[in-house]
UniProtKB/TrEMBL annotation, chains A, B:
InterPro entries: Isoprenoid_synthase_dom_sf (IPR008949), Polyprenyl_synt (IPR000092), Polyprenyl_synt_CS (IPR033749), Prenyl_diphosphate_synthase (IPR053378)
Protein name: Farnesyl diphosphate synthase
Cofactor(s) required for function per UniProt: Mg(2+)
Class of this enzyme: transferase
Gene3D superfamilies (UniProt xref): Farnesyl Diphosphate Synthase
Organism listed in the record: Uliginosibacterium silvisoli
GO molecular function, one term: (2E,6E)-farnesyl diphosphate synthase activity
The enzyme's E.C. designation: 2.5.1.10
The family this protein is said to belong to: Belongs to the FPP/GGPP synthase family.
Keywords: Isoprene biosynthesis, Magnesium, Metal-binding, Transferase
Length: 294, 294
């Protein structure tokens, strides 16, 4: 299967898995469940699920197990978007081409949607019998928690808020992104792998790959925020500059940011090389990320 | 040991466990970690930890395991308080006798504090090696997730918001409270028990006890909101009536609410009776809850 077909098939599969695993819209409390579905379904590139499937297929995980992992990852990701968009944070009105949750519903609902989606992620991942080895499954739960909390994604968000309007160094910017975006992207790769293997050498290699790809993803995002338009992004473009947020583009400039993206992609490829043809999808995702239109 | 001493010793122990398990205030991101500690430490009756310790001691769980469970429960509880107090929800300025997190810090920090405390709960409970049996530990994680999410605590909060200013029946009020407060209280009893036993009959009995005590706790809370003053409560008194929120007092009246509290306490005692002297602490907590000054 060619990469675009594989990507489309995983995206369809994940959409269906989310559709089934999110509480039904007619279940009480209905407004909350409707809003959780509104926030999660029908949009997004599903980058974290794609990484989990790519790493999981390489490691021999079953698709059913990867469905649950993909839903957990996407629930965490969407919860963070819903909360980040709220008026007290980024105050944004558009996400994935639709009004944000607090605009479509209200602020209290957006707050609860994010809260309940985070819980749903841990509910998905702790489903009994999901892994043959319960110890390995616990390791996956612990990994997701660590990547999402105050020393991971939520912590990165706090550093981001703190940095608005401040002059920060490239090292500080990198520290922020490794937490804010990188931690969950790395977790996506690791959770997919953990669902199929316990080989430490493979996990260690994929951990380094996850770190490269997480940073790569953010550098490309910063470039896109600078050069793409709102229609292409499905979210408000030029927001970072408008909010005086430090980005790779504002700190090192557009051309060096592009060079950095290519270097990170090369490092990611180099890390995957010893894994041979089995790592094909991970290589293709790397190329896909770096080739997003800019 | 008499009950008041036992209660004080568990509360001290839990305070210390939280102190140790919350990220240090000097760890980056510092403002977030400071605010997480501000929200969690030095206050609260620690009702959920007390229930977990009482059920756990009965079931033969080790204190170390109960520390982690108590911290997980209290992290979930505090996250819900921090988010509930925000301007888009109850908009409250006082909690446990101190300014609420969004007043002391800011709204964005309060949002992230709640988010990161929820994650911390799952991180605590998924710590490798916490239970001898990883399958049983996963069961505990799944139980906490179910009790906290859209079909549990967060869902109850959504129903609560939806009911403001509306006339609801006693059945609807009970449905709301079983979710909003009851689910996590029941989870506290069950997690404590699960840390020491897998006996289905005991777990089933404690599950019913947890349901009674959860509802009892809320009935008493509604009575206290009506009759106690702000200084005694450590939070704003008379808030429910001021916000036109349905309560047991507003729906069935003060005297019938007091009668209901006594009936629920009796049912809780009846459920514990077959467990004999081992259930002593659970019986004492029941009496403690029903005897809170009203």
């Amino acid at each position: 299967m060619k990469f675009p077909e594989w990507m489309a098939s995983v995206q369809r599969r994940v959409e269906q898995a989310l559709e089934q695993r999110l509480p039904a819209a007619q279940l009480a409390p209905q407004r909350l469940h409707q809003a959780m579905r509104y926030a999660t379904l029908g949009g997004g590139k599903r980058v974290r699920p794609l990484l989990a499937f790519a790493a999981g297929e390489m490691a021999g995980a079953t698709p059913e197990r990867l469905d649950a992992i993909a839903c957990a990852l996407e629930s965490i990701h969407v919860y963070s978007l819903v909360h980040d968009d709220m008026p007290c944070m980024d105050d944004d009105v558009l996400r994935r081409g639709k009004p944000t949750v607090h605009v479509q519903y209200d602020e209290a609902t957006a707050l609860l949607v994010g809260d309940a989606l985070q819980t749903l992620a841990f509910e998905q991942l702790s489903t009994l019998g999901l892994f043959e080895d319960a110890g390995n499954q616990l390791r996956a739960v612990a990994l997701l928690a660590k990547a999402s909390g105050s020393r991971g994604m939520a912590g990165g968000q706090a550093i981001d808020l703190d940095s608005v309007g401040k002059s920060i160094t490239r090292e500080e910017l990198e520290f922020m992104h490794i937490h804010k975006t990188g931690a969950l992207i790395r977790a996506a790769v690791m959770l997919g792998a953990l669902a199929g293997t316990t080989d430490d050498a493979t996990l260690e290699r994929l951990n380094h790959f996850g770190k490269c790809i997480g940073l790569l993803f953010q550098v490309v995002d910063d470039i896109l925020d600078e050069v793409a338009d709102t229609a292409t992004l499905g979210k408000t473009a030029g927001k970072d500059a408008a909010q005086d947020k430090p980005t790779y583009v504002s700190i090192i400039g557009l051309t060096p940011a592009r060079t950095l993206a290519r270097e990170l992609a090369e490092e990611a490829h180099g890390t995957l090389a010893p894994l041979g043809a089995a790592a094909q999808r991970l290589k293709e995702i790397t190329d896909y990320i770096v080739s997003r239109p800019f």
